[in-house]
Amino acid sequence: MPLSARNELAGTVSSVERSGIMAEVAIDLGDDQTVTSVITSASADRLDVTEGDDVAAVIKATEVMVRKD
């Protein structure tokens, strides 16, 4: 599926925690890196996302900030 977002991280779902209308999906990217997305429970159901699924975290942002300590 073509998307306008250019940042895509492949990984494996490590957990899905539903709470009411929202679901928190943790994606293991490897090398001890995880990205977490909060999506609607309806979206999680529609995608049928479950632990162990291979997925992509697609990131679309109008602004990315860099910080250095």
Topology:
Blueprint: E1 7-19, E2 22-30, E3 33-40, H1 41-47, E4 54-59
Brief synopsis:
With 69 residues, the chain is mainly beta. 10% of the residues lie in helices and 52% in strands. The chain is globular.
Question: How would you describe this structure to a colleague?
Answer:
By secondary structure, the protein is mainly beta. The chain has a single domain (7-59), classed as Beta Barrel (OB fold (Dihydrolipoamide Acetyltransferase, E2P)). 10% of the residues lie in helices and 52% in strands. It contains one helix and four strands. The protein has one helix spanning 41-47, and strands spanning 7-19, 22-30, 33-40, 54-59. It has a four-stranded antiparallel β-sheet with strand order 3-2-1-4. A hairpin with a 2-residue loop joins β1 and β2. The termini are far apart.
Count every beta strand, where a strand is a DSSP E run of 2 or more residues: 4
Q: Which structural class do you get from the secondary structure elements?
A: mainly beta
Number of domains: 1
What helical percentage do the residues reach?
A: 10-25%
Percentage of residues in strands? over 45%
Rg, alpha carbons: 13 Å
For this structure, what is the CATH homologous superfamily?
A: RNA polymerase II/Efflux pump adaptor protein, barrel-sandwich hybrid domain
Mean pLDDT: 92
CATH structural fold name: OB fold (Dihydrolipoamide Acetyltransferase, E2P)
Q: What ranges have pLDDT less than 50 throughout 5 or more consecutive residues?
A: none
